[in-house]
Input
Amino acid sequence: MPETIVHGPAVPDTHANLAAVAHEEGQHHPLKVYFIVWGWLFVLSACSYLVDYVGLRGYPRWSLILLFMLIKAGLIVAVFMHMVWERRALAYAILLPMFAVIVFVGIMAVESDYTVLIRREYFAADK
Amino acid sequence: MTDVPSVPVRSRPPGWRGIVADWSSDQRAFKQVSWKKAMMWIFLLSDTFVFSCFLVAYMTARSSTTIPWPNPSEVFALHLFGQDIPLILIAIMTFVLISSSGTMALAVNYGYRRDRRMTARLMLATAALGATFVGMQAFEWTKLIREGVRPWSNPWGAEQFGATFFMITGFHGTHVTFGVIFLLIIARKVLRGDFDTGRRGYFTSRRGGYENVEVMGLYWHFVDLVWVFIFAFFYLW
Output
């Protein structure tokens, strides 16, 4: 595919100057890495299922669910989606906006807390 | 990326100074990243916001209702071998999707080794697992609808349960379905040797490459990633 040139003379954007075969760059990693991550994803999923199966409640349950979820998400993004091998400029551009989501979650947590207080206070029928 | 002279990236400083250097002045920010990959990432970022909005809406609905939320552990239990096993179908769906993520990662790897048949075979396996997932989801929806779950009511508790359930799992299932369709399309291209002969795409008239498999993989892993969050917040919480 044609690439934008940063410095140097412009090359006409035609397909003719591209090799018929795809460029050789890309993500080359040993298969072992994928199998290890794959195995861990299975183990972590089993762990989060066990949290429900053994019937943990309250904060132990929530913190374990969040822990397993974050490790799984991290492994998928980092290894399966190759984010650890990408340039930092791309990784930060994609990952930093997630903080906006976390802020949004915080705002709505406060808001729903307020809503439920008002409902308990004024809508006796809901009790 | 062709043999076009580009910025000598190795001479750039590491860490934050490197990020600033990459983004400053009139130049291409994502060096060594093809546009198809950059655009897929940007699409996935926007899709993340969409799913985040659904999950935040679910959180808001669940934590602001005064009526008890139906217990997902019981709602999604299946009666198997003479006993109720909690969440068993969802657990199997999770394992199916993770398996498909693994086969996809391997497909990308074999693609860069230019192993046409193995790549296509692994992509078809991924598509089959994805279709299995959607099938199990259809089974789950049927079961819940028979039990009386509607977007506006359900037999067990807070009415918002049905609306959030159908919205979130439906949107995710749609993503899986489209993923399966595109997996089949790309697998056909791989099998036909499009990425070896440089055959032009029907719609784009451009030559593809084995990087297309990686970009497809990004989307597929994202679908698995979203399920990780749905599994944690909707089914386990």
Remarks:
- The two ends of chain A are 62 Å apart (CA to CA).
- Chain A has two domains: 29-86, 97-127.
- Residues 98-122 of chain A form the longest helix (25 residues).
- Residues 120 and 126 of chain A are 7 Å apart (CA to CA).
